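FORM 7B: Structural annotation worksheet

SECTION A. Query
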Amino acid sequence: MPDMKRTLKLVRTLAAMAMGGGICASIALLLRAPPMDDVAAYLALRASLASIARMVLLPATALTLVSGLLSIAVHRPFHNAGWAWFKALTGVLVFEGTLGGIDSPAQRALASVTSKAPVDHAALAELLRHEWGALWIILCLCVANVVLGIWRPKFGRGRAVEGRG
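SECTION B. Predicted structure
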């Protein structure tokens, strides 16, 4: 089992790095977003964001979540560790947030800009606002996951060893 634990840790670490890179790339693109009046430039931005979400964020997030759950399954001390289960819960929230808060708005905005109908700037601005919020929430959850993995607090338990302060 030690090889499986190491392999899962490596996969999870690499996937988390890809996820962080995808989030940072999305934030960097959004910081340099062209005005919505420049339809061609805005279309290129939306296509880039949709590609990052579809090809980097979603697969990396799914791989991080699955490898984390498999780590809990193969590493017996994680079975009763409250921090590991809390980390698994936040991993599910990150996946759901990536799917619903980043990928979905990116796809809707891209569809809106590429359709024959006139561009609804107010709707695009609202999608952009939600996308920003989702990116920051997901980034905070990812940082919380790293902190939990390092700190490993004892949730729901008293002192681990009696007599120690």
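SECTION C. Observations
Residues 39-74 form the longest helix (36 residues). Residues 2-151 form one domain.

SECTION D. Sign-off
Analyst initials: ____
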